[in-house]
Amino acid sequence: MKIALIHATTTALKPIERAFQTVAPNIELLHFMDTGLLALMEKSGKLTPEIIRRFSALVNLAYDSRVSCIQLTCSAFNGITSILQPLYPVKLFRSDEAMLDEALRYSTIGLISTVKETPIALQNYLLDKNPDCKIVSLVDPGIIHLLSQGRRKEHDDRVKKMVKQLDGKTEVILLSQYSMEHVAKQINPSVPILTAPLLSAKRCLDHLNGTFR
Questions:
Q1: Which pLDDT tens digit goes with each residue over 14-39?
Q2: Is 150 left (phi over 0), alpha (psi -120 to 50) or beta?
Q3: Where do the domains of the chain lie, and which CATH numbers do they carry?
């Protein structure tokens, strides 16, 4: 079986590959990427027609490759799944829906983000599922780019600072970007901390096995 992964940044590649290697090493992964999308999103702050066209081009390539499902890896573009899903018979998974569904077990949820457009996409999903959940969001806009600049320690320290600010104020903390997954291994907050890659890979596998609807 083949699964398509759609990226807007190279920083998502290793986290999602590690996740699939853990849960489904025999699955063939096909990568489709447009690194210009994130800059467009940061400039516009919303899904513009240009972003949708460019994103749909990636989905078209993925679908034409006869994949069994399509997994997004950039949370800022999650809203596009509801736009494009009716056009394709294969399942399009948001980058973080498995993580968010897990987070909904808690009544107060902390969001840590490094892209300023991400919190809105995540909060909309959570509040649509449970209007009564309390969300506390912290964002350090743009520090995701520190990773591609070779400034990983600075990136990680700033993420850990946000986690420390939230620790104890919510029942669970979410690291919104795939690129923060490695930071979870460096910290030990007093509440559970969730990342998306492994949970997303497991959900894809459940879908392929017919155990997720």
A1: 999 999 999 999 999 999 999 999 88
A2: left
A3: 2-96+198-209 (3.40.50.1860), 97-195 (3.40.50.1860)
